[in-house]
Description:
The protein is α+β, with helices and mostly antiparallel strands. Helix content is 56%, strand content 14%. The protein folds into four domains: 185 residues, no CATH class; 83 residues, Calcium-transporting ATPase, cytoplasmic transduction domain A (Distorted Sandwich), CATH 2.70.150.10; 118 residues, Calcium-transporting ATPase, cytoplasmic domain N; 139 residues, Four Helix Bundle (Hemerythrin (Met), subunit A), CATH 1.20.120. Strand 21, helix 22 and strand 22 form a beta-alpha-beta unit. The C terminus is likely disordered.
Amino acid sequence: MLAGLALAAAGAGPAARGAWVAATLIGLGYSTATLIAAARRREASVDVIAWLALAGALWVDEPLAGAVIAVMLASGVLLEARAQARARRELSALVARAPRTARRETGSGPLEIPVAEVVIGDRLVVGSGEIVPVDGRLLGPAVLDESALTGEPLPVERRAGEDVRSGVVNAGSPARLTATATAEASTYAGVVRLVGQAQAQSAPFVRIADRFAIAFVPLTLLLAGIAGAVAGDPARAVAVLVVATPCPLLLAAPIAIISGISRAARRGVIVKGGAALERLAAGRVLLFDKTGTLTAGRPALTDVVTPADGELPDAEVLRLAASLDQSSAHVLAGAIVTAARDRGLHLSPPAGVRERHGYGVDGTVDGHRVRLGKASTMTAGPAPAWVRRARRRAALDGSLAVFATVDEAPAGVLLLADPVRPQAPRMVRALRGAGITRVVLVTGDHADTAEAVGRVVGVDAVHADRDPGDKLTLVRAEQDRAPTIMVGDGINDAPALAAAGVGVALAARGATASAEAADVVLTVDRIDALADAILIARRSRTVARWAVTVGMGLSAAAMLVAAAGYLPPVAGALVQEGIDVAAIAIALTALLPGRSHTVRLTLADVATAQRLHTQHREVLPLVERVRTVADELSQPPYDLGPARRLADDLQVRLLAHEHAEEAELLPIVSRALGGAEATSGFSRTHAEIEHQIGRLHRILTDDPAERAEAEDITDVRRLLYGLYAILRLHNAQEEEGAFSLVPDAPAP
C-alpha cells in the first residue's frame, strides 16, 4: 500500500493501482484461508465481511480501499496472534522426570537396564534420592517421599511386603523391591496418560470477535444489499462493507487482552495467552490442592519437647540434633537444620555419622553421642511419660515426632508438621471478593489433616484421600456446574490442572509438570497474587467488550452514512481507520491500574516488619514452653520452679516483643489496611496477654516459700493453658493479618 502511495505521488497511476491490487489480493487470499478453516471447525466468523469488502473493492475498481482494508486486516491478525500466543501444554517436565533406567539385581551385582525392559518379577534396587521406576512390592523397609503422587508432604515409612508405586522418591537408604508391573502399566505412566486425556478434552477457545458474528454479519450483509439495490450502484454496497470491516473486533479485543497479560506478568502471574485470560475471568469455582498451595509443602519444626528434669534445654537439644543432621540425607533433616539456623544456634561439625534405615542416625557432636530416630527404636522398655505426651500431641496435631538421645539418655522430642501458609485465609477471602463463589479443597492427604486446613482457610468443601484420577473426576464434575479454576503445584495435580477451565500452577520453587500443564503460572510464592490476576482478567475482558461495543457502534453509524451515499469506499476506509484508533484507545485503558488485593508498603515499613517478624519467630519456642510446663504439672511431685522461670521469661521477653509490635507493627498494618479498626483486635489481644501474664506472675510469686497445694497447681495449669491458647491464636492472627503482608526477609 505504501509503495502504491509513493507511485501515485510520482504520477505512476497504473503502477500504483497494481500495488494496491496486489495488497488487496494478499488480504483476500488470507481471508479465504481463514474462512475455510472456520468452516471446517463449524465456527461463525466475522472474517466473511472482510472477504466481501476486499472482493467488492476489486469488483467496483477501488483498489486503494481494498489495500487499506488489507493493512487493517493484517494488523489485526498480528495482534490477535500475539494475544493468543500461549505456551503449549507440553509434558516435557513430566517426561523428563520419568525414570529412563532401572537397576536389576543379578548374581554379579546390580545391572542398569532400560526401564522398558523391566518385567514382572524382576528384583530392583532403588538408591537414595532415586525415583522408583515401576510399581513393585518392597523386599525390606523403606522411607518414601510420595508427594508427587499423593500430595502428602511428609515422608512415609513402608514395611517389607507393602506395595510401592512408580514415581515416588526413595527418601531413605537404598531399597529393594520386586516389580509387579511393567513401566507402561505402572502408576507414573498412567499419570502421563491422564494429563494427555485431560488436555484433549479441553474446550477450544472462541474469540470475542466471533461471538459478535452471529448477529453482526447478517445485519451487515442485509444493509449492504439494501443500499446497493436501492441506489442501483454496487459501490454503495461495497462502501457499507468497507466501513463494516470488523477491525475493532480484530484489533481492540487482542490489545485489551495483551494489556491484561502484561499487567498480570508484572504481579508475578504468567498467563499463557488470551484464551487463558478469558477463562480466568470467567472462573467461578476454585479448587485447591493442599500441599504446597495452602500449606508450605515442606516440613517445619513446630516445637522441641524436653523432660522437666532434663539436663539440656530445648535449644541445646535442637542444636545437637541439627549439627548431627547436617550430614543426613533424610527429608526431615533439612527442616531441623533450618529451624536451628533460624534461631541463631551455632552448629558444630559431626563426626562418625552413621545412618541406618529404620533406626535413625547417630554420631558425635562436641564430644556427645547423639542419636535421632523413633522412640520405639531408641528406648528400652516403656517410654517415659513425657515422651508419651509428646507422641500423643504429635498424633493430635498431625505432626511427626523425632526422638533424640544424648549420651544414651533421653533428651527431647522434635515435632515437625507442614504449616498452613499465613496468607492462605486472607487469600481465600480476597478470591471471594474477586468473584469466586465456591472454594473446594481437594487433596491426597488424610481427612483429619485436610479438614483442619479447610477450617482454617475457610473453604466450602473438603475432599481428602484423593489420587490424581479422583482429582480429575472432581474437577470435571465441578466444571459441569460452573467454570472452574484449579490450583496446584505437584505432578499429581497435572491432570486436574489440564482438565479445569483454567489450571494455575505455583512454580516459585522451580518448574514442575504442573506448570507445563497449567494455563496460568505463579512465579511468586504468594498465592494472593491469584486474586489480583482474576481482577485483572475480568477488567481486561470488560475493557475489551467496551472497546468492541464502542468500535462496532461507530461502525454501525458509519454503515448507515455509507448506505445513504455519503461515504464512498476510500473515504469509508479512512473513517474506519479513525474508528479503529478510538477502539484501540479504549482497549489501552486495560493497562491502567485497577482494584488490587496487593498491599503496598514503603521500604522502611518492610524493614521494620521484617525485624519484628524475626523477633516473632524467636519467641515461638517460648510460647510452646507454656504448654510444656503446664503438661509437666499433671502429676506430683509438683515443682513450680519451671513455671516461675517461665513467668519471668514471659514478662521480660514476650511482653517486650508485644509492646514493640503494638508501637511499631500495628501502625504499619493500620496504614496498609486502611484504618485503626483493622488492628483493634490485635491491640485487644495484646492487652489480654499482658493481663494473663500478670495474673500468672502474681499467683507464682505471692509466697514462693509456701508449699504448693493441689488447688494452686490447678490454678497455675488453668492459667498456663488459657495463656497458651490465646498466644497460639494471636500468633496465627499476626501471621495472617500482619506478617503475611510483608515479603520474607532476605537470606543473610
